[in-house]
Amino acid sequence: MIARIRAAALACFSALALQATVGAPAAHAAYPEQAIKLVVPFTPGGATDAVARLLANRLSGKLGQAVIVENRPGASTVIGANAVAQAQPDGYTLMLSGSTTYTVLPALKRDLPYDPRRSFEHIAIVALAPVVLLVQNSLPAETAQQAADLARRQTASGGLMYGTFGPGSAPHLVGEMFAEAAGAKMTPVPYKGSAQFITALIGGEIALGVDTVSSAAPQVKAGKVRALAVTGEHRVPQLPDVPTFIESGLPGVSMVGWYGLVAPARTPQPVLATLNRAVAEIMADPQVQRAVTDLALEPVYLDGAAFTARMQQELQTFGEVGRRAEIKLD
Where is the signal peptide (predicted)? Predict the structure, then answer.
């Protein structure tokens, strides 16, 4: 009798346990369980796309799932950034973009559909992109200080003309930083990109301007233009003889572009921890570092806290430069 009671009780307990298991919500599965989409808000082929594809390939190996790059260009990166800001915060949609998305546009443009501080979880900065001050070969200035002196002397006659990629672009902001550091007024001249800008510089349409190291280095080495200074804390390997603005006595010219990886806001912390760990390991790999250096970028790993701090500082700096120079992107 006792044995039958025990058997019945055991059967009842097993049935209840099975029902509880079936009816209970599933525990959080190990991340990732499916392919991850990495959005790049630029067209294929540029530096941002190259960094994203390198990172995607290595993340796939680390996480055991495909990481697929999706290019979503448009509206100066706003289309892609907003799509990621509105995506499901589950770790399966990420974005790699340049600092334009996170600091330049938000500092200068009103009514963006996303907030770089609140719309994203900041995972890591993986590369830095210094820019270089270029001058036409005939400009009577051998150093950045001499160029600043020349700009100051020519302020009364309208100022030197310098090339930009349009209002609010990195060359525009750095040009205004240079003008402020020189105590001069200069005139921005917009071009559609590096090719037009370099052609104008060689032809003497403009006196100076800034461009990325990757675009400028071949032209400098070919003797078509001269490089006077680079932004950042140290010289770049592609132009080792070119001093920094800090060395040149113009530390206020300080803009360095960068590439940051984010996820939508409210992505779970365990997912972010997995991604942070993977990215830190990837960026410590000498092969990855060489590949990024070959793109004329500086490989780094700056975690989410450093990402946020850098972004906050640049939002303030670029906002102030934009207000003083009356740069508005509406």
Answer: 1-29
Mean pLDDT value of segment 266-290: 98
Say if residue 217 is in the same domain as residue 77.
no
Is 279 strand, coil or helix? Answer: helix
Q: Residue 28 phi/psi, 5° resolution?
A: -60, 125
Structure tokens at 277: 């760990």
Q: At 211, list the tokens.
A: 């461009």
Domain count, the chain: 2
pLDDT of 11 strictly over 70: no
Q: What is the pTM of this model?
A: 0.86
Position 102: which residue type?
Answer: Y
pLDDT given at position 32: 97
Clarify whether residues 118 and 155 are in a common domain. no
Query: Measured between alpha carbons, how far is 190 from 285 in angstroms, rounded to an integer?
Result: 39
Cα(255)–Cα(232) distance, integer angstroms: 7
Strands (E), 155-249: 161-164, 187-190, 208-212, 226-230
